[in-house]
Amino acid sequence: MNIRRLFLIFVPYFWLLALFLVPFLIVLKIALSDGALAIPPYVPTLDFSNGWEGIKTFFAGLDMENFIFLTEDELYWRAYLSSLQIAAISTAITLLVGYPIAYGMAKAPDEWRPTLMMLVILPFWTSFLIRVYSWMGILSQEGFLNQFLLWTGIISEPLTILNTNTAVYIGIVYTYLPFMILPIYAAIEKLDESLLEAAEDLGCSRMQAFWLVTIPLSKSGIIAGCFLVFIPALGEFVIPSVLGGSKTLMIGKVLWEEFFSNRDWPVASAVAVILLLILVVPIILFQRNEQKQRESEG
Amino acid sequence: MTRRFSWFNATSLTLGFTFLYLPMLILIIYSFNASKLVTVWAGFSTKWYGELLHNEAFLDAAWVTLKVAVLSSTFATVLGTMAAYVMVRGGRFRGRTLFSGMIYAPLVMPEVITGLSLLLLFIAIGLDRGVVTIVLAHTTFSMCYVSVVVSSRLVTFDRSLEEAALDLGCSPFDAFKSVTLPIIAPAVISGWLLAFTLSLDDLVIASFTSGPSSTTLPIKIFSAVRLGVSPEINALSTIMIAIVAIGVITASLVSKQAIARRQNEEQKALKQ
């Protein structure tokens, strides 16, 4: 082990330990502390000046009270459940919208593909906040959509969409659509066209061939896309607070309000810890899918 | 392949891309609206752009954002490239699993949690919130993106080239500088660009880690947006969309040209 290699490993390692792992341990610690009217607003604080005794009283002061509080207060239950629900439903809608687009891209003439690809990636580089904001002007009471629908005569009174859960669904589908399209496109593009011909030769209709060949063979892309939408959507803050209403309950927003409005740091930390525990399941499933994918490719 | 490009495919592509681009298009069009009422068209005007130029608060925020983005993406590129090198070439060492875990975890970590945990750290160590804390925070999460981009390039890269340089008497650092770096340069550059846009874009982590004197543009936009749609924000958004679009298209044209030139040179070399 030479000095240079040690340095190369140490610098990024230390950085991540100090600015990723340690902060998270602090969150865990504060989640086990009690709120207090002090600076910082929680007790106990670790005090090394009393030596070993100080450390012991510090650990004795930690408890699960905040977690018990979270299970007792209905608000948090509802917030977690409604985040799961909103994330799941919008993932399903994104799949329904994204699959045909990915399919169309994979079947498009070769010379179009780089352009189509760039058109899908371009929104990803554009500010997330601006993309969410762009829907405010469309969905509002006197917004573009209502004006259009009134003009065509489909509706006679403007619809209330902005500041409802519907707007949140639209926002999530819109902003995360590229994450769904790209893995599915990659899966369909690799698909061997002769398999479809074989299926048709063996008497499948086009539709049957699609269900029996294309869908199963693009399964890994579908799974990857769904997780790439579901995981970030679950902890989403910007979309529910810009497009959602006061009734929209999402855990990211609850955490934010606990911290900035109620200034209850221990509860905010406990909310964060539980959110992370919920996320561990889909993240592990996603990793497993990726692993399987890599192995099948050799 | 073209055999199956049916009307259905053409329709889904058209509808899909309309869905992706129409909201931004409407926003751009309405940024040129003369009326203060954002939903009523009252003729073409660029006055909102003019007002933007006189809005000190926005200009200050833009300056802070740019500073943070340049600094954090540069640090993130250095650290991320190092991390990628360790991951791909580092071999075995104690705590490697923890290291790769810490590289991948921030990619899936909800921003509210990253922001909260960093803020609690800064408070615990008594660091005043300002440009420095935002830069530290942005560097941390974007170095992980950089390292993923760079390591995917390093994996496909023929190690024997490096070994040849070492055999021919290069020091490891020289070998890295004159062999490895030029080959992975495109990945390093796109890592930097990614880190830069992530930083420009970030609202949540910046909100947790910024102080009163260091408001970034997304924080400013967010607080304005909460009050409703405004033509000034439309104008600002349009400028930002234009910058990104020009940047991405230029980058792709340049890289396309570079590939074409290299292929051309390779063919010439083969003919000789």
Automatic annotation (TrEMBL), chain B:
Does the record bear Protein biosynthesis in its keywords? no
Topology with respect to the bilayer: Multi-pass membrane protein
Membrane-crossing segments per the record: 12-32, 61-86, 98-125, 131-150, 179-200, 233-254
Membrane among keywords? yes
Any Pfam family the entry gives: BPD_transp_1
Provide the family line.
Belongs to the binding-protein-dependent transport system permease family. CysTW subfamily.
Protein name (record): ABC transporter permease
